[in-house]
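How a chain folds remains the central question behind the approach discussed here. In the encoding step, the backbone of a single protein was reduced to a row of integers, each denoting a local shape. We regard such an encoding as a compact summary of how the chain folds. The sequence in question and its structure tokens are set out directly beneath this paragraph:

___
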Amino acid sequence: MNIGIDIRALSNSQMSGIGNYIYNSVKTLAQIDNRNNYYLFSSGYRDTVSTWFDIKKDNVHHIHYKIPNKFLHGGILTGLGPNVTNKTPVKLDLFWLPNLNFYKSNKNIPTILTIHDLSFLHNTEFYSLKRRLWHKLVKVHSLVKQADKIIAVSDNTKRDIVRFFSVPKDKVEVIYPGTSATKIDKEAAEKIIEKFDIKNKYFLYVGTIEPRKNILNIIKAFDRLHKEHKDIDLVIVGSKGWLYKGIMKMINTKSYIHYLDYVRGSEKDALYCMSQGLIWPSFYEGFGFPPLEATFHGIPVIASYKTSLPEIMKQQALYVDPYNTSDTYQALKLLVCDDTLKKDLIESSKEFEIPNWTKQTQKILNIFENTTK
């Protein structure tokens, strides 16, 4: 088959969860599949994808459409723009949208759509006006209706899809993403994080700086903890998202917070390895890579009991009410003071089953091969 894949989200090498999903899915498809041909579609005035993401395989082809995205999106909205499925040198048998994006469907080509979360329908206040407008213009309802098959990254997301769009349950298949952390020993990790000049023990937050991640709750809870334990700091890792300014203003007032911006690869692995635990009391998550990455590295996780996180983490987390700062503080206090609890979480992490990309991507490939017109 000739399969088209939208990789426009990879135009920025500072990958969020969605970028991580697309990058690893495409990379793994190239590794496990030699029979099908893949045509990776990107757009923009400059081809920023090829500067850092280049798969050298005979059956993988990158097609960059050199047009500013605002013009491409405007053309799709008005119906006057190009159909991206016609930009390949061969007729496509299938097109995969691995995230919500502007797309002009082709009735003769089956479409697979991945939906990561519907937080923009649950909590509009977490999004800027520009982002809310984007979600409206992308016409999510139309994308859902036109898709021949929908992949949801969790049962929680599937329930939301069925609820908001009245979609038949059998149209939506749940496939968890994989996890792409790499083991590192403490001696190597300690050496790597020397550059960050973190003198004290620390708890860790990894993720985009935006309201939905509930970072202000973390800081308020940590204020209480730090008054009692001056030797414990907070490390925040992640690029700035929408509505980040108020959060960054708070971060910059706290001497115990180390904000490291975007970190990837061995540096991120090392930060996990040396931390006392991950704090992740998000208001809404469709899946959640950092809690699984933390568990992979054998460190305890504090997570919100809302949405998908209990489904993903099961018994491998201390759960808190994301709206209750005292809950987060008490969980932090437990990990600091209860050595038995902390040891139990570390030990149980060794047996915890973490999704891997090869197994999960094979499931995506199976959907490709079973979806034809």
